[in-house]
Amino acid sequence: MIEIRIHGRGGQGGVTLAKLIATSRFLQGLSVQAFGLYAAERSGAPIQAFCRYSEEPITNRNLIYEPDHVIVLDPTLVGATIMAGLKAGGWILINSPQSPGEFATQFPRNRLATVDATTIARDNNLGTRSVPIVNTALAGAVCRMLGFPPEDAYAALEHLGFRGSNLTAAERAYNEVRLLASPREIEPADELVATADTRRGPSILEGAGAALPGIKTGQWASEQPHRRQMIPPCNHICPAGNNVQGFLSALAREKPDEALAILLRTTPFPSVCGRACPAPCMEACNRIELDGAVNVREMERYAGDHGRANPEQFANREERIAVVGSGPAGLTAAYHLARFGYRVKVFESGREIGGLLRTGIPEFRLPDDVVSREINRILDLGVSVATNHEINRQALLDLARDHDAVLVATGLQERQDLRLGMDGTETVVQGIDFLDHVHRKDVRVDGEDILVIGGGNTAIDAARSALRLGAERVRVVYRRTRQEMPAIGEEIDEALEEGVTIELLTQPIALHEVPSDGIRRHYRLTCRRMQLGEPDESGRRAPVEIAGSDFDLTCHRVILALGQSPDVSVFPEGTEVREGNQLLGLLETPLFAIGDLATGDGTIAGAIGSGRRTAVHIHNVLSGEQVRISEHADALRDVDVWCDEVIHADALRMHLFERQPAAEVESLSASTRRSTFDEVHIGLEDSSEAARCLSCGVCNECDLCCTYCPEGVLKRVGHRLEFDYSYCKGCGVCMAECPRNVIFMSHL
Ligand SMILES: Cc1cc2nc3c(=O)[nH]c(=O)nc-3n(C[C@H](O)[C@H](O)[C@H](O)COP(=O)(O)OP(=O)(O)OC[C@H]3O[C@@H](n4cnc5c(N)ncnc54)[C@H](O)[C@@H]3O)c2cc1C
Ligand code: SF4
Ligand code: SF4
Ligand code: SF4
Question: Which ligand number lies closest to the CA of residue 696?
Answer without folding.
Answer: 3
